[in-house]
Amino acid sequence: MKKIIYGLFFGDSITYGEYDGVFGGWVDILKRYALQRFHEGNGDELILYNLGIGGESTEGLLKRMPNELSARNSPDGNIIFISYGANDLAVKEDIQIVNPEQFKKNIKTAVQHARLFSNNIYLVSILPFAQKVDGAVVSSGKLRTNDEVVKYNEILKEIVAEEALTYIDFHSAFLQDKEILLSEDGVHPNEKGYGMMAEIAIPIIEKYL
Known about the structure:
This protein is α/β, with parallel strands linked by helices.
């Protein structure tokens, strides 16, 4: 008997797929891929939920995560992706939205929530920013730096090691070609960037199909 497994993607606007008017972002590409595989009659059904909210930090995640998890809990199993940091590390009006210590606490709390529903938990790296927005105040009033991205990604890697999770390293994949993989705003991927993210993530979801 085939199983129905849920994949839950928690994140911000990059999880949601903002700025991609062609494919809808990396999670939506994965959704279509999983659906196609199911219609081909191969393996279990994997239903993916894009739970990304633009502008959200880990503070917002913790407020909604328990309800989101309980509302989408498959008895056959769940896969949970947690993709945060780009908003947490931002400085607005001289105050960092979520400082490194609190960020680590919040992600660890999110992992505890996720563990109630799954042992298959993935932490997703923060992407690098384009040179033009590195250290610049953008129209949203936020200032971000690539130095902070490295610091916050190190925190994610520490948690992965401490909690025996899996790390998805989009950061390294983007680093060399970030200027052609990011959109005009220098923060969100463009269609090419989102496509690369999906290519990296497809082998992960393959394990559940």
